[in-house]
Design brief:
The chain is mainly alpha-helical. The chain is about 65% helix and about 0% strand. α1 crosses α2. InterPro entries: Cro/C1-type_HTH, Lambda_DNA-bd_dom_sf.
Length: about 45
């Protein structure tokens, strides 16, 4: 999944996703369950 698509899905800025990925910003606790829902199927494959 692209950063842009994930950002749209979570209603966030793409730059926020980029910061999560490069480690310059931690993932806020409220987004962790949403990330698992969105990415869980991809991670299990």
């Amino acid at each position: 999944m692209s950063q842009a698509r994930l950002a749209r899905t979570l209603n966030l800025d793409r730059s926020t996703i980029s910061r999560w990925i490069n480690g310059s910003r931690s993932i806020h606790a409220r987004y962790r369950p949403l990330l698992w829902q969105v990415l869980g199927a991809d991670l299990r494959s």
